[in-house]
Design a protein that fits this description.
This is ABC transporter ATP-binding protein. The radius of gyration is 18 Å and the shape is globular. Strand 7, helix 5 and strand 8 form a beta-alpha-beta unit. Helix 4 packs parallel to helix 5. Helix content is about 30%, strand content about 30%. The two termini are about 25 Å apart. Bound molecules: adenosine-5'-diphosphate (2 copies). One adenosine-5'-diphosphate binds next to strand 1, strand 2 and helix 1.
């Protein structure tokens, strides 16, 4: 079954300046366990599309299903990794991760142990007692990923998670996240304007045309390349 199904979605923003067509008849799907990237220039509607799939905005037209269920609002089945890490500065790394579990009502002994295991897997165990300001940007992004993976979302949305990092850190983090998400067979949807990043990370790349965004082309990435 499909993890994500987007059916003929169009979206128009209306405000005091008028109406703006952001997305036009988007049709796409993501299979369970698949890693798909959405690539397109700034302003083509990538963030709008992710927000619609996540149930944060209702599309002007069309519909979205997550694991066969119509999306009518936000759901805990979706986890996020964003450009900013949104860590609490006055809490330790361990506390930041436990807050993620608490917000989801999942702060069981088992989940706490799983979270610490993920922290170890991401090479962050030694920093569990540190504060976000003591960590580099790449490390903080790893913490943000642990925080969301610990809640075991069924699908992960990554919205330009590498764009604030320097080139070396970006490559290292891409590799680590690639390995981690493959290992956990996590269904993932990455939004990026960087085609090289999309090819390196994905099973399939969906290219969006500039504003208004629509699916221009879909490219399967052979595993020998990925
Ligand atoms: P990006 O996702 O490309 O980093 P944003 O989503 O913040 O950037 O904004 C993209 C463009 O959308 C901006 O140039 C801005 O003009 C427009 N925009 C964002 N939010 C609003 C809003 N609330 N009202 C009108 N225009 C907006
Ligand atoms: P991307 O993430 O690909 O940069 P966005 O989804 O942020 O694109 O924006 C798509 C288009 O919709 C842009 O032209 C932007 O200016 C416009 N837009 C985004 N958010 C708003 C908003 N809240 N109100 C009005 N226009 C918006």
């Amino acid at each position: 079954t499909s993890a994500v199904e987007v059916n003929q979605v169009s979206h128009i923003y209306v405000n005091e300046h008028g109406a703006k067509l952001a997305l036009e008849q988007i049709q796409l799907s993501v299979k369970t366990g698949e890693f798909v990237s959405l690539v397109g220039p700034s302003g083509c509607g990538k963030t709008t599309l992710l927000s619609i799939i996540a149930g944060l905005i209702a599309p002007s037209e069309g519909s979205v299903r997550l694991f066969g269920q119509p999306v009518t609002g936000p759901t805990p089945r979706v986890g996020y990794m964003l450009q900013q890490d949104y860590l609490f500065p006055w809490r330790s790394i361990r506390e930041n991760i436990m807050i993620g579990l608490e917000l989801m009502g999942q702060k069981t002994a088992e989940k706490r142990e799983y979270a610490l295991h993920l922290l170890d897997e991401m090479g962050l165990s030694a920093h569990a007692g540190s504060y976000p300001r003591e960590l580099s940007g790449g490390m903080r992004q790893r913490v943000a990923l642990v925080r969301t993976l610990a809640t075991e979302p069924d699908v992960l949305f990554l919205d330009e998670p590498f764009s604030a990092l320097d080139f070396q850190t970006k490559l290292q983090l891409e590799n680590l996240i690639y390995e981690t998400l493959r290992k956990h067979r996590k269904t993932s949807l990455l939004v990026t304007h960087d085609i090289a990043e999309a090819i390196a990370m994905s099973d399939r790349v969906i290219i969006l045309a500039p504003n208004p965004g629509t699916v221009y082309k879909e490219v399967d990435i052979p595993s020998s390349l990925a």
